[in-house]
Design a protein that fits this description.
It is a single chain. This protein is an alpha/beta fold and 284 residues long. The protein has two domains: 177 residues, 3-Layer(aba) Sandwich (Rossmann fold), CATH 3.40.50; 85 residues, N-(1-d-carboxylethyl)-l-norvaline Dehydrogenase, domain 2, CATH 1.10.1040. Helix content is 47%, strand content 13%. The protein is built from eleven helices and eight strands. It has an eight-stranded mixed beta sheet with strand order 3-2-1-4-5-6-7-8, with helices on both faces. Helix 1 links the parallel strand 1 and strand 2. The chain is globular and about 55 Å long. Bound molecules: 3-hydroxybutanoyl-coenzyme A. The site of 3-hydroxybutanoyl-coenzyme A (3HC) has 18 residues, from helix 2, helix 9 and helix 10.
Length: 284
């Protein structure tokens, strides 16, 4: 099956990045947000990213305009009816995701492949909300989507082999590196990353070292681009808390139990870069 037209549901941080990546690879993309205001914000962030790319001489002004010309924004889910592949990137809430998958199943022709960018929920739960569980996969991109090379391609126990291969080849056509993963909560990366991030918070709670020294140790000792606290602020403490809770619910393993400090910071509104304060202060 050939993918000619891509749909993206959600134009937040991940949805906008995914729409941009697909348009950069030459696909016409229709991206849907629930309100015009949120859609404008998402499209604006794509515009800004590409403009920075022009300033950094990564692409020309003409290429930027061509990419933007391939992206059509909408607030109507029905406008995704002509897409061959639709990637869902709405909030990490199974009820909302199931609603989206159920609605897409009614709107799209039977051959359309439906994918989720979930980072922690199981794909089969969304597949079960459709009449085409064999045509549902996970396509998990990483933040920032336009820069991160990896995409986890997730096959459920119901995914058709040809659909999986099509999704895998599609990821390659985006210039990304696909890896195949089973439909277990967290797939490969978050299965390993979340215990690491939570472990760093526990180490801080226990007074092992300062957050600055823990970050420095992991960057210089392991060659990571960001230390765990820089990464927590980057990903968002609320997102990490939500993902950890979902994984804990699934595995019932204390490795995934959110430490009290994480919960307190989320309650206080210290969400990381997006709120101006997390483990570090971004207001200055
Ligand atoms: N357009 C084009 N290229 C751009 C760009 C733009 N707007 N902005 C940056 N770039 C390019 C730069 O030119 C540079 O390219 P070069 O190496 O060829 O010169 C490269 O991207 C890096 O940019 P910067 O130098 O500005 O930034 P950093 O070197 O500080 O890297 C980062 C930023 C890529 C975010 C890096 O810090 C990083 O990899 N951090 C870790 C991110 C990470 O782990 N993400 C995963 C989070 S977990 C997740 O998403 C899972 C979820 O489910 C929770």
């Amino acid at each position: 099956m050939q993918i000619k037209h891509v749909g993206v549901v959600g134009c937040g941080l991940m949805g906008s990045g995914i729409a941009q990546v697909c348009a950069q690879a030459g696909y016409p993309v229709t991206v849907r947000e629930i309100s015009q205001d949120l859609l404008d914000k998402g499209l604006q962030s794509i515009h800004k990213f590409l403009s920075t790319g022009v300033e950094r001489k990564k692409l020309t002004e003409e290429q930027k305009n061509q990419i933007l010309g391939r992206i059509k924004g909408t607030t109507r889910l029905e406008d995704l009816g002509n897409c061959d592949l639709i990637i869902e990137a709405v909030v990490e809430d199974i009820h909302i995701k199931k609603e989206v998958f159920g609605a897409l199943d009614k709107i799209c022709p039977p051959e359309t492949i439906l994918a989720s960018n979930t980072s922690s929920l199981t794909i089969i739960e969304m597949a079960a909300a459709t009449g085409r569980p064999d045509r549902v996969v996970g396509l998990h991109f990483f933040n920032p989507a336009p820069l991160m090379k990896l995409v986890e391609v997730v096959r459920t126990i119901a995914t058709n082999d040809e659909v999986f291969q099509t999704a895998f080849e599609f990821v390659k056509s985006l210039g990304k590196e696909p890896v195949a993963a089973k439909d277990n909560s967290g797939f490969i990366v978050n299965f390993l990353l979340i215990p690491y991030l939570l472990g760093a918070i526990r180490a801080l709670e226990n007074g092992l070292a300062s957050k600055e020294d823990i970050d420095k140790a992991m960057k210089l000792g392991c060659g990571y681009p960001m230390g765990p606290f820089e990464l927590l602020d980057f990903v968002g403490l609320d997102t990490t808390y939500k993902v950890a809770n979902i994984l804990f619910e699934e595995y019932r393993d204390r490795l995934y139990a959110p430490p009290p400090l994480l919960k307190k910071m989320v309650l206080a509104g210290y969400l990381g870069r997006k709120s101006g304060k997390g483990f570090y202060d971004y207001t200055k």
